[in-house]
Every structure is written in structure tokens, then in C-alpha cells.
Fold this sequence. Notes:
Elements: H1 5-16, E1 19-24, H2 30-43, E2 51-55, H3 57-70, E3 79-81, H4 85-92, E4 98-102, H5 106-112, E5 120-124, H6 139-145, E6 153-158, H7 169-177, H8 186-193, E7 194-199, E8 204-209, H9 213-221, E9 225-228, H10 230-234, E10 240-246, H11 250-262, E11 264-267, E12 270-273, H12 277-289, E13 291-295, E14 300-303, H13 307-319, E15 324-327, H14 331-340, E16 345-346, H15 349-356, E17 362-365, E18 382-385, H16 392-400, H17 404-409, E19 417-423, H18 427-437, H19 441-449
Helix pairs in contact: 1-2, 5-6, 11-12, 18-19
Amino acid sequence: MTLRPYQLQGVEHILAHPRSACWAYMGAGKSLITLTALDALYLAGELDGPTLIVAPKRVCESVWGAEAMKWGLDDLAPSLVLGTPKQRARALHKKAKVFCVNFENLPWLVGHLRTWPFACVVVDESSRLRGYRTRQGAKQAHALGRVVFSSERHIQLSGTPAPNGLDGLWGQAWFLDQGERLGKTYTAFLNRWFKQVSINGGQWTRIEPMPHAADEIQSRLADLCLSIDPREYFGVEEPIRVPLYVDLPPEAQRIYQKLEREFFAEIAGNGVEAANAAVKSAKCLQVASGAVIHDSDSGAWSAVHDAKLDALESLVEELVGAPLLVSYYYKSDLARLKQRFPKAEEISEGAIGKWNRGEVQMLLAHPQSAGHGLNLQDGGCHLVRFSDTWNLEHHDQILERIGPTRQAQSGHPRPVFDYTILARGTLDEVVAERHLTKRSVQECLLQAMRR
């Protein structure tokens, strides 16, 4: 395992600061940085108790354990404190160095434990702590606030610590120093660095940072918070590609394997049959996405799983308000996306204008309807591929709508993020390889069969 220079910098930062934050974009390797630092701390005897990782449920289930195994840090694979209260209690009694709990179960965990056993607390997606207040505020953050300073070490990870403004930093900073740098209370923080501005003739007000706020706040946090700017390491000429892996639930995995093996499967009482290899490929990709069209004439479909929807929801939460262009291929995907994200808008002439004015957080687009000629770069720089097919032109064209060249031409010197949600162990991975290597479909399939 060889760390990249910025990853090594992250490890050194965590080791040098008992309470620290690492701010780096998704895909930069924050989990590897943290696991490497934890491994070093345990080997050196500087941690004498278990570590608790607090993360979104999907991240608990599919990221931390997989990352530990991937990098040969098997003893740091976490015991997952998820499920029913009995299942959580059993997970806590396992002999493990690392435990992982989702944010929603934090209040239960704090109330369940008579004494706080964790020597280190890692908060993955620390922007979830932004709502903390000393006397009120977000329930989950408040529960953690009661015990977090009983731990010797505290590590915060985030790609977007303050996407909606500097005022979101106070809650996170409090968990690092109990208000030493930014003020003991949120009110004191606001009074020092923000002002109220009247809007619409005084009908309401909003807070805005004073001119000196950004430099002073950043200066005060600089010793504890390491910020990794992807432009310093990757530039902005190429998109930053981030795969987001999900695991199919057992029943969905059974359906996928049966369809792949026998060209037929029954889903919710409806038979799904693949007449040939090409149809089977499409049906397998549909299962990987979460729903299968079982009647091509009417377009009727049956849901199989929500793993990709959960992953997208987790990404939305991590980016905290950053606009997302979501690419999908199947009508069933569109219906399920609109049901899960009712404020999302389908691409249309009116929606494009709203997107480019910053009025749409999620824009849903089929690659064929958002192909050549459309300019979407003013609205954002994050593309999420919810589902994909073998079509290389469609794959490239949807990215080009917000791509690096268009960003630069429009005066936006910012990196473009290309997220792909992939169902592990399915044709999703083969399609992704096809697009990355530009190899033929047949070559990719033959290679996959040899694994």
C-alpha cells in the first residue's frame, strides 16, 4: 500500500493532532487516511480503547469494512452497530477495535452505554454536526456532544464542511475545541463575524459574513483542520471520477444471478425473460439499478431494491446543497428517483434555465435528452450516474454538459466530479470498465468471464 502525497499529509495531520479535521473531496481517500492513522496509533500503543466511527447508514454498511479489507487492515474492519436494538447490543459486545454506528442511532448508543468506552471517535461527513448548539440544536449532534470529550481522540472527515456558508462551521468546530477558537456559543460566533441584512424591503433578514470573516475563521481553524484542494493535485483539466459502490440485498442478488444464469427470473409475481444475450445484459443492468421492466409494451416494471437510491441520498447529504446532475437510463429509474426526491426536476427548457440560475438542486437527465449542445455548466459541477449502458457516446456526452472545458470557458475554474453508483459484482462494473478503457463490449465481457 503506497499513499499518495496528500494522503500521507492527512495521516501525519491526524497523528499530530488528537482532535483534528480532514476536509477533502469524496474519492480522495479519507477512509484510507483514517484507517492508516488508526493502525499507526494502535501499533504505537497510543490508543488504549476501541474506536467509534459515526457515518451515514449506507457508508457504515458498504464503505468502512470494504476499505479495511481492501488495504489489508482486516483487524480494523468494524463491528456494525445497526439494525434492531438487540442486534446493536450484540454488535457492541463483539471483540473489535472499531465499531460503526449510523447518525440516527447515536442517541440510542449514548443512552445505552453506562460508561463511554471509545478512545477515538471518527465522524464521517462531519457537516452533519453543523446544527449543534450548546443548549439545543440537532438531536444526534447533541447526543454526541455529551460524550465526545470523554474520548482521547476525535477525527472529523468531510468533503464539504460549509457548502451553504461559513456559519455551518461553528457546530463542527465545537467538537474539536469546545468553542475555544470560534466562540463558546453560536450566538457569540454570529455576533463576532456576521451581520444581519434586510431582504425585500425589510420583510425578512438573513445573516451574511463580514468582509474579514473568512480569513479570520480559516486562520483560527488552520492548526486543527487540514483542507485538501483537489486542484492542487489533479488540476481541473480532467474530471475527478469517483465510484460509489453498493451491495445488492440478498434477494436482489439471487434474482440477478438467476437471470444471468438462466435468462429468466420471477420478480413480484412477474416473469422476466431474456430472449438473447443482449436482452439479458439490459435486464441485468436494470436489476443492478433497482427495478426491471417486465412488459416492454406497456413499460410496466417491478422494484427490486433501493440500494442505489440510498447511495444517492447519502451523496446528497454529504454535498449538503451542492447541485447534482443525475443521469439515468430507464423509465423505472426516473419514476423511482422522482418518488425519493420529489423536488428533483426533469430536464426541460424551463428547468435548464432554473438549473443555470442555481434554483434547482437536482436535475434528472437521460443522456439522449441532454446530449450535444446543451450548456449546463453554470448550474453545477457534480454529475451522478445512477444507471448506465454500453453506449460510449451517451456516457461521454452527458459529462460534457458540465465538463471541464465548458467550466473553464464560462469562467468557473473548479473541478468537475463524475460519480458513478455501481452495484458490486454486477455488469455495472464491466460497463464502467468499458467506458474507462474504451475497449469493446465483447472484450470487456470476455475479460469479466475470466475473473
